[in-house]
C-alpha cells in the first residue's frame, strides 16, 4: 500500500490545542449544505489529482476508487468516465442527489441493511455508488476494498479526536496494492479553529506509518 501527500510546507506548530478540542457535529455539517456554505466544493477537477493521477492509477484500469466525505465532487464523474468504479460516502443526502442531477445521471436509491436510516445511491450505469451515512458506519463488508483512495478534504475535515479511528478505517478499506492520495492544508492553526484542520506531517506519519512507501 502506498500513501502520498502534497501540500505547501510551513514550520510545524507545537500548539494546536485550539483545534484539538474542536468538535463538528453532524448537524453542523448538514447545515452547511442547507445554507449553501460549501466553499470547499470545487466546480473544476482538483489540480493535484490531475498532477498525480498517474501515481494513483499506476497504469491500472478498471479500479475501485474511494472518495471519503465525497460531497458532490466532480472528480467522481471524471474517474467513472475513464472506466473506473467510484464509491463515495457522504452524510448529506442533498449533496449526493445534486451530484447526480448536475451531471444528468439517472440513479436508483436503496436502503443499506444493518445501518439504520442509511441509503446508497447507484448510477444506472453501475459504476458509481454513493453511500449516505456516517463514514464510521462504513466497512469493507459493506463497501468492499479499494485500489485507490482520493482523500481531498476528508482527513482535514473530521474531528481531530477521531483521526485514529478514521485512519484505521481507511487502512481496513485498502487492497494491498492501494494508493492513498491525500491532500492536506498548512497554516497557522492558532489563527483558525477549523475545519479544515491542520494535520502535521508527524501525525500523518503516526496515523499511516503502516503504509509503505509513505511519501510526504
Structural account:
There is one protein chain. With about 220 residues, this protein is α/β, with parallel strands linked by helices. It has a single domain (about 1-210), classed as Rossmann fold (3-Layer(aba) Sandwich). Helices cover about 30% and strands about 20% of the residues. The chain has 9 helices and 9 strands. Strands 4-5-6-3-2-7-8-1-9 form a 9-stranded mixed β-sheet, sandwiched between helices. It is globular, with a radius of gyration of 17 Å. The two termini are about 15 Å apart. The model is unreliable at about 5-15 (pLDDT under 50).
Short summary:
By secondary structure, the chain is an alpha/beta fold. It has one domain (2-210): Vaccinia Virus protein VP39 (Rossmann fold, 3-Layer(aba) Sandwich).
Distance between the termini: 14 Å
Poorly predicted regions: 7-16
CATH architecture classification name:
3-Layer(aba) Sandwich
Structural class: alpha/beta
Helical coverage, percent range: 25-40%
CATH topology annotation = Rossmann fold
Characterize the biggest β-sheet: 9 strands, mixed
Question: H/E element string?
Answer: EHHHHEHEHEEEHEHEHE
Tally of DSSP β-strands: 9
- Structural domain tally: 1
What overall form do the CA principal axes indicate?
Answer: globular
Rg from alpha-carbon coordinates: 17 Å
The fraction of residues in strands falls at 15-25%
Q: What is the average of the pLDDT values?
A: 88
CATH superfamily descriptor? Vaccinia Virus protein VP39
Largest sheet, spatial ordering of strands: 4-5-6-3-2-7-8-1-9
Instruction: Write down the oligomeric state.
Output: single chain
- Can you count the helices? 9
Q: What is the C-level CATH assignment?
A: Alpha Beta
